[in-house]
Design brief:
Blueprint: E1 5-6, E2 15-16, E3 21-22, E4 26-34, E5 39-48, E6 55-65, E7 68-76, E8 81-91, E9 94-98, E10 105-110, E11 125-128, E12 148-149, E13 169-170, H1 175-180, H2 182-187, E14 192-195, E15 199-201, E16 209-215, H3 222-234, E17 238-243, E18 280-282, E19 286-287, H4 304-311, H5 316-323, E20 327-330, H6 338-350, E21 356-359, E22 369-370, E23 373-374, E24 385-386, H7 389-399, H8 404-417, H9 420-423, E25 427-428, H10 438-442, H11 452-457, H12 462-481, E26 485-489, H13 515-530, H14 532-535, E27 538-544, E28 547-554, E29 557-563, E30 570-573, E31 577-580, E32 585-586, E33 591-594, E34 599-604
Parallel strand pairs: 3-10, 11-14, 11-26, 12-13, 14-17, 17-20, 20-21, 21-24, 25-26
Antiparallel strand pairs: 1-4, 2-4, 4-7, 5-6, 5-8, 6-7, 8-9, 8-10, 15-16, 18-19, 22-23, 27-28, 28-29, 29-34, 30-33, 31-32, 31-34
Length: 605
């Protein structure tokens, strides 16, 4: 029976409009049945997420074309939520259910008031691990920590002499260093700086917050930060902070395990005003902490005073957003209660409706289940976008030899499942502070069975580097053309290597820059700027041989990123091509050679 039925949820002839819809938007469903079986009735069954009983819509016979019968139904749903659907056929041989392979089809109905910021669409994000980006001259930036301040370029510490990793080696990257490099970032096409945590902390990564109200003294002070915001804004660049609200540091004014702060911390006394922020199993040394890491005790989000401090009037979100912060990225957002995420969104947006809220999600965020609860990130009351890890995996897999069809399916699943306004502000990364560097991954060097010391000391040969670099050129080009906003992890544009944390967090070597790679990234930034209508337009794929052809259509033209991940040259047919953007050359003719391992980006009609 299945082979006699045609329905493609991505084909506008079958479902219109495509993908997710706003409340009260009419949807049209069409399904096509070939001759060969008598069909007495066709029904569309739509299930609200979590429901066992569907809404049933009888489909009407519409017309017959050749050997196919077309059935149609129009549906209007005004309740916000996640929905699943399938088709039921009543035939002479009984009933038959038509579903997507392995599951029902999906769509989201989102609040009609749901909008996301336009300023970030078509832009470029640059992700800075602040301690390691650039060290500027600033008298307000002082080292006052338990740890070691290393020379810039000195190797990172993987464990201390006693075998413990404390993340307490520092290099002094600071706000002034970022200010010094703003012209560099502007030329790269950056429109948003995503900074790793900047609040006072005992570690170099600062995900163990010591005081949400204070800038870490090694970065500068509040005046230094305000100056960064001002100088960046003058160049059309905004600032997004890392909001770490699931846990604090054990070494914090709130927990104060080591007595570093003058406050009475929760670890010190049950009489502490912060005691109910944490869950103790056996006071004071056994407590709930993030993934069992005792330096990051988890905050109980039932604690009203904590939530008020973060998202209440005059709280942490207000303080820094009023200073000029334009966006927040929520660390481990799937570990936050949804009502807390709602409160955070309200705080971010009350300081400006065009402020941005991004969440760290590693899977498809439209149907994410975390700790047995379905999440509702894209229905209008929570996030604007997420970190797009599914695209990361699709890009790296394809560039390393994966199929074009597999890439297309992964990408189109996300494109279909996310509301377009959410999709347009997702962070498209190919690596981050939590993963190995893209260049190292793309080298294809097998590191299984090695220890971290070996991986720390490993450097690609010239041949290995050139091979990985060619792959990175392809990966970054796809990253910049995919729907969403490309996020460059600092130094990728200069050819930085490194495996897992902390090896992916080395200092950036400003004296040894891969100028060819930097030029490539600069061209990609120019494409984002000059072809904004296309990179914010519709997404679809074409197929010609083994080529991957990613198309972005705007009102006045189409971008086609054509990638060949095979070893053989292939021919691409595009009679309406006007220009190849990476070379800057005007095109002539209809057929173009795409060498093995090469990517080209064409603009045409």
């Amino acid at each position: 029976m299945k082979e006699l039925i045609y329905f493609d949820s991505r084909n506008p002839h079958c479902k219109s409009p495509f993908g997710s819809v706003e409340q009260d938007r009419e949807m049209t469903f069409k399904i096509f049945v070939k001759d060969g079986v008598y069909v007495s009735d066709v029904e569309l069954h739509i299930y609200e997420d979590g429901a066992d009983i569907p809404y049933v819509f009888r489909m009407s016979f519409n017309c017959k074309r050749g050997d196919e019968s077309e059935y149609i139904v129009k549906v209007n749903i005004n309740k916000v939520g996640l929905y699943w659907y399938r088709f039921l056929f009543k035939t002479e041989n009984g009933e038959y259910q038509y579903r997507r392979e392995g599951d029902d089809f999906q769509f989201t109905v989102y609040d009609k008031r749901y909008v996301t910021p336009d300023w970030i669409k078509g832009g470029v994000i640059y992700h800075i691990f602040v301690d390691r980006f650039c060290k500027g001259q600033d008298k307000s930036a002082v080292f006052n920590k338990n740890g070691v301040l290393k020379q810039w370029g000195e190797e990172v510490t993987i464990v201390d002499s006693d075998g413990v990793f404390r993340a307490n080696d520092f290099y002094g990257g600071n706000f002034q260093g970022i200010i010094d490099k703003l012209p560099y970032l502007k030329k790269l096409g950056v429109t948003l700086l995503y900074l790793s945590p900047i609040f006072k902390s005992s570690s170099n990564h600062r995900y163990d917050t010591g005081d949400y109200e204070m800038i870490d003294e090694l970065l500068g002070d509040e005046q230094s930060f305000a100056l960064l915001i001002k100088k960046a804004s003058e160049m059309g660049i905004y600032i997004m902070l890392d909001g770490v609200f699931n846990h604090t540091g054990a070494d914090s004014k709130y927990f104060n395990k080591f007595g570093s702060y003058p406050t009475l911390g929760a670890y010190q006394s049950k009489q502490s005003q912060y005691y109910d922020w944490y869950d103790f199993y056996n006071f004071p040394d056994e407590y709930h902490c993030w993934w069992g890491i005792t330096v990051t005790p988890t905050v109980s989000q039932r604690a009203k005073s904590f939530r008020d401090m973060i998202s209440g009037e005059g709280g942490i979100i207000d303080k820094w957003t009023k200073l000029g912060v334009k966006g927040w990225r929520l660390d481990v957002v799937d570990e936050l209660r949804e009502d807390f995420v709602v409160d955070i969104r309200e705080a971010v947006k009350r300081n400006g409706e065009d402020n941005l809220l991004i969440g760290e999600v590693w899977e498809d965020a439209s149907n994410k289940v975390a700790y047995s609860y379905r999440r509702h990130y894209f229905q209008g009351k929570e996030l604007d976008g997420v970190m797009n890890y599914p695209f990361k995996e699709a890009v790296l897999s394809f560039v390393m030899g994966g199929s074009a069809v597999g890439f297309e399916n992964t990408v189109m699943n996300i494109v279909e499942n996310y509301p377009k306004q959410s999709l347009d502000v997702t962070m498209n990364l190919i690596d981050s502070h939590d993963t190995a560097r893209a260049l190292s991954v793309l080298s294809g060097v097998d590191m299984s069975g090695t220890d971290k010391a070996y991986r720390r000391d490993f450097v690609l040969s010239k041949e290995g580097y050139d091979f990985a670099k060619r792959r990175l050129v392809m990966a970054s080009a796809l990253q910049f053309i995919l729907p969403g906003v490309p996020s460059i992890y600092y130094g990728d544009e200069q050819g930085m290597e490194g495996y897992e944390d902390p090896l992916c967090r080395r200092t950036l070597d400003w004296d040894n820059i891969d100028k060819d790679l930097l030029s490539h990234y600069t061209k990609l930034g120019d494409i984002r700027k000059n072809y904004k209508a296309q990179v914010c337009g519709d997404t679809y794929f074409e197929r010609q041989g083994d080529l991957l052809i990613l198309c972005r259509k705007g009102k006045k033209g189409i971008l086609k990123a054509v990638a060949n991940n095979t070893i053989n040259s292939q021919t691409f047919y595009y009679p309406n091509a006007k220009k190849e953007l990476l070379s800057g050359e005007k095109t002539s003719g209809e057929c173009f050679d795409i060498s093995g391992g090469e990517i080209k980006i064409f603009f045409g009609n």
